Amino acid sequence: MAHANEAVEELTSPSIDPEEVEKFSAMADEWWDPDGKFKPLHKINPLRLNYIRDTLTRHFGLDADADQPLKGLRLLDIGCGGGLLSEPLARLGAEVVGVDAAIRNVKTAKAHAEKTGVKVDFRHRTIELLAESGEKPFDAVLNMEVVEHVSDPAQFLKTSASVVKPGGLMLVSTINRTSKAFVMAIFGAEYVLGWLPKGTHQFDKLVKPEEIEAALAPEGYEVGEPVGVSFNPLSDEWRLSGDTSVNYMTVVTAPEK
């Protein structure tokens, strides 16, 4: 019955795909298992954290080598899941708000943060509800591995960017819609290697870098050059690369107002 009650509490918004929410809700208990269904996120997390830290400290003129290099920054982690990014970012000194449309994810995130003693403001929210609530703008918004799971990527990106303060940043990480991405990120990762549950990604929902620019540039946002994220099987590690044909990250700068 607990799961039935939780389903009633799921949120609806224009960008929300109910099937995607249910898919990740069903795996909520495994978020913090490094060998579970979210193993790929655990492996890529060190790279993502370094990229976020270096990008934010450079942009805001902070010391990347400090014990808490992100101290003084207020961040939003959209689609925070079980808090795999939110918690370490809070440890780096940031004030972090994590939102997710699946209540089971939020409950998992809250329980883990309480256990580890890390202060994160986890909320059962969609980005639309947060934007409509008059929330104070954030220094940076993290849009990591989320846009490929929503029903209207362009509108989702616009709404997400709308809660970035003038001159602030939005960091986007996703998968390119290319034949190479289909072979490696979907067929290879899900059906051959079993890194992810089958059906985690749908090819037609993947987003090209130029589509991010098309959605945000007319609104005055500056979309940076994407950087590739590639897996090295020899070292069993993810690294930044010049190949954006599969996984990539990009930085969006909000206009000064």
User: Which percent range describes the beta-strand content?
Assistant: 15-25%
Structural class: alpha/beta
Unreliable parts: 1-9
Into which percent range does the helicity of residues fall?
Answer: 25-40%
**DSSP strand tally:** 9
Task: Kindly provide the radius of gyration, computed on alpha-carbon positions and rounded to a whole number of angstroms.
Answer: 17 Å
The pLDDT mean sits at 85
Distance between the termini: 49 Å
What's the order of the H and E elements?
HHHEHEHEHEHEHHEEEE
Count of separate DSSP helical elements: 9
Largest sheet: 9 strands, mixed
- Basic shape: globular
Explain what you see.
37% of the residues lie in helices and 21% in strands. By secondary structure, the chain is an alpha/beta fold. Strands 1, 2, 3, 4, 5, 6, 7, 8 and 9 form a 9-stranded mixed sheet that branches. Strand 7 and strand 8 form a beta hairpin.
Please tag this protein with its features.
9-stranded mixed beta sheet, 37% helix, globular, disordered N terminus, 21% strand, 257 residues, alpha/beta
Helices and strands, with pairings:
Elements: H1 2-8, H2 18-25, H3 39-60, E1 74-78, H4 86-91, E2 95-100, H5 103-116, E3 121-124, H6 127-132, E4 138-144, H7 153-161, E5 164-175, H8 179-192, H9 209-216, E6 222-223, E7 227-232, E8 237-241, E9 247-253
Parallel strand pairs: 1-2, 1-4, 2-3, 4-5
Antiparallel strand pairs: 5-9, 6-9, 7-8, 7-9
